[in-house]
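Tutorial, part two.
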Amino acid sequence: MDAVVSSAASIHARSIRASSRTWSLGALFLAGCFGPAILYLGLAYYVNPVRDFAVAAGHPFPAVRSDYRNEKLTLLDAYLEAAPRQPVGGLVLGSSRSMLLNAERLGRHTGLRFFNFGLASAKGEDTLAALRWSMGRKGQVPKLVLIGLDVESLRDARSIGDSLHPLRELATGEPSTLEYLEAIVPRMAAWSYARSVLLSIYFAVRPRQPVVGFAPDGTLQYRFLDGQRRAGTFALSADMPGCMALCRRKIEETDALSPAQVRYLKTTVQEAQGAGAKVVVWLTGPHPQTAAFMAVGTEYSQLLSGARAVLGEVAALGAETHDLHDTRSLDPAGEGWYDCNHFDNTNATRVEHVLTASWEQ
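Running the prediction step on this input gives:
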């Protein structure tokens, strides 16, 4: 009997050791599979090469690509903290075509301290979110809000992974944290993202001149192209064909404006007015050659007519409006441009005078 018990105990002990080895091997296997993945995701989060996450001033790794949402949040807070007794009374909202409106020049025109909260590829929901975020910071209540409206901003193009979660949530209530993670984690796992991580690390070790940057007041600066202009090497015509083709691809599959984005734009106007601000909405446009190119074989002309109708609708809400889509009235020669889609400071100055003329009077 003792022999049987001893044998059973021995078998049980061997079973425990075998089970322990199995678990150890399993843990090693899982660590080998998921450990590097977790380390990579942690590195990608810290390097933050396309600014999907909040970034502090002085972050050691430069952006390889960005939609500027996180940068603008950081800039606004720093701008407010730099002069806590000087509230931001003027706000610029809109897409990249609005980002060159110069906050300092606008301040001289209006006597207000301006911040440019323009965002790359901003849609109606982004404009609303930027307004809500700005008014929620240290009790800021703007007196003058300039909103750049363009055809592209009213498309129903949604991309959770390409917009900052806190901003989108402010405007739409979406996505949930889980939905955002479901969008961002696969994006981070793509080879193109890993390449951006490596490029950011490389540029941190081997710095290069940034293509663009921001003044403390949020105004966009085309540092690389301005450098070319100072050196006399800038040529607008060189990049026009490729740039126009890219602009056209953005609207080729669009046949109607988004009712949701129009609603977000109107809500932006109404909430700014409700806070006591004067609202000026202007219809932006690309280089005249680009507009003509996009109109051939697409619905761009119809979309533009729809955007002009929206401009009329926001005018009915009490906003001051300006149709500046055809920039030839400001720049007959079509030379005041950085590329096929974004005007330079000469045209920005002209636009600023139009948008602030009634305030100055």
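The beta strands are 90-93, 114-116, 144-149, 213-214, 220-221, 278-283, 320-323. In part three we will examine how such features are distributed along the chain.
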